[in-house]
Structure formats: C-alpha cells, structure tokens
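We were asked to recover a plausible sequence for a given structure. The inputs and outputs are reproduced exactly as logged, with field labels preserved.

PROBLEM: sequence recovery
POSITIONS: 187
GIVEN STRUCTURE:
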C-alpha cells in the first residue's frame, strides 16, 4: 500500500444515512407490528395512504372485519356479555384502558360485566375498521351517560389479534378504567 493510499480519506460506499435508517425503521416496524400498536413512523408511512386500494386486503376480509367490529361494539352498547364471549378465544387476554390484564373467559366475562355496569350507557360510532391478516383495528367515538346523568364522549380504539375468528388478545385503548380493574402497580 502506498503512502497516498494510506493517507487518503476512506470512501463510504454505503447509501446515505437517511436512506439506510429509513429502510431499517421500515423493516423493523414491519417485523414487530403488533395489533395493539400502530406502525412506527417512516417517511413512507407519513404520506397520505389510500385505504385498501392496492388489493392487499380482500374485500371479503374487510367486510368480515367490519361485521366483527359492529357486532362487538353492539354487544358492548347493549351490555350483552354473553354475546361478547364468543368473540374471545378460551385463553384470550383482555386489557381495558389502564386496567390489569384479564386472562381467560371467566376473568374476561366478570371484568367486562363489572366495567359495563360502572361506565353506564354507551353508544359506539365506528369511525374506521382496518384489517391486516389476523389483526383488526377499530376506531370509534363513544358517547356515554352515567347513572347520575353525566354525559360525554371518549375516543376509543379496539385492537384485536384474532385466531380462527375470535380474539386471542384484545386491548381497548381510550376507555375509562374503573378502580377494581387497576393493577396495584398502576399509578
């Protein structure tokens, strides 16, 4: 090696750092995307995206996801716990708001019944339903009225990971938590 070669600035043959990091972020978000979390930010995802126009999700899957979402929130709005239970696998995991995890049909049935009793009358207006393979993401606005006449609205997202059509993991984000459902480690 000559002195000129030793003293020369090293050449970077890799793509610019921005392109490399965008690709890595995109790959990581694709690999780790759970139903309960939105995909990580990337420049590609920050652009307005048309909804299901590329044919990636078959129309019958979108229609089935919408039917599942409408039936699920309808059962919530009618305090119909028995109608909700077929939406869960026997070993399902449920979290409502910041409440603790409810695992299995018995815990879920008891927990949902208590939660519905505490929050009062609700009415879900489904804003959007997204489906990706076994994941369903339901965005809604929930109006409510408590037993003492207080009314209001909260935005809510239901994220479900399904197995054979039933939720094996379901999280209701934005829902009010009630004291008995809070873990002792939750502030």
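RECOVERED SEQUENCE:
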């Amino acid at each position: 090696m000559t002195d000129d070669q030793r003293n020369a600035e090293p050449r970077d043959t890799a793509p610019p750092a921005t392109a490399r990091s965008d690709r890595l972020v995109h790959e990581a978000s694709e690999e780790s995307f759970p139903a309960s979390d939105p995909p990580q930010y990337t420049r590609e995802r920050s652009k307005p995206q048309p909804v299901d126009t590329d044919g990636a999700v078959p129309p019958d899957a979108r229609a089935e996801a919408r039917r599942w979402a409408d039936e699920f929130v309808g059962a919530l709005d009618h305090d119909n716990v028995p109608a909700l239970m077929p939406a869960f696998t026997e070993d399902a995991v449920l979290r409502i708001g910041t409440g603790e995890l409810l695992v299995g049909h018995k815990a879920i049935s008891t927990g949902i019944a208590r939660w519905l009793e505490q929050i009062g009358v609700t009415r879900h207006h489904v804003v959007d339903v997204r489906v990706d393979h076994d994941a369903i993401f339901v965005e809604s606005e929930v109006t409510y009225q408590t037993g003492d006449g207080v009314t209001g609205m909260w935005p809510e997202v239901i994220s479900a990971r399904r197995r054979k059509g039933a939720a094996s993991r379901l999280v209701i984000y934005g829902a009010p938590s009630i004291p008995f459902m809070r873990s002792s480690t939750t502030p």
